[in-house]
Amino acid sequence: MNSADMIDSIPEAYEIKNSKYKALFLYKNRIMRKAIWMIKYEKNYGMTKKLSGLMHEFILENLSDETAFANFDNPLLIPIPMHNNNLKKRGYNQSELLAKEIFKIDGGKNFNISCDALIKIKETPHQSDLKNRNERLKNLKDCFSADEKKIKNRNIILIDDVITTGTTMNEASKTLKDAGAKKVIGFSLAH
Is residue 1 assigned to a domain? Predict the structure, then answer.
């Protein structure tokens, strides 16, 4: 049985303390870590497609409450961006691959997409390389910029591969709100 077939047996993630961010699976699971590695470092399209399909379903399940109770209409799907230097080294952004595939599956029925409405303007060490939460908070402070014309009065769905402490999502969310976003929620494959 290959990793793509085993995805269905991975336990779902528990609720993240900050309820505006949700993760589909537990990162501690070795199959999930391998699957994310395949997307993040091997650009495995089959795994990207499989997990994007599951993520699309997960987002729609959660959006039903948002649209009913929080006036979360016409959302814009935005992947967490990479700094251009890191993007040049890797050649692609795994969060952007996920977001584009989710949008492709959706066909524009539930949300639109923008891969350039949020950019990373400051090159920072990887969050996973830092020792503690305080270092992670300082590391990402003011590292994003948002295009106000694309963001103003829009509801936003952020997409990332992994949420650890929520620092990346928090900083991106703050930047988007400062640019005029109505509401920002975030989804990741794992936590």
Answer: no
Residues 6 or more apart in contact with residue 68 via CB below 8 angstroms? none
Residue 23: CA atoms inside 13 Å, Cβ hemisphere, count?
A: 25
CATH code for the domain of 67? 3.40.50
Between CA 157 and CA 172 the distance in angstroms is 11
pTM of the model: 0.88
3-state helix, strand, coil in the chain (%, to 5): 50, 20, 35
The span from the first CA to the last CA of the chain, in angstroms, equals 24
The amino acid occupying position 84 is N
Answer for the pair 115, 87: CB distance below 8 angstroms, yes or no: no
Least confident piece of the model among 1-15, 119-133, 147-161: 1-15
Residue 150, H or E segment:
helix 148-151
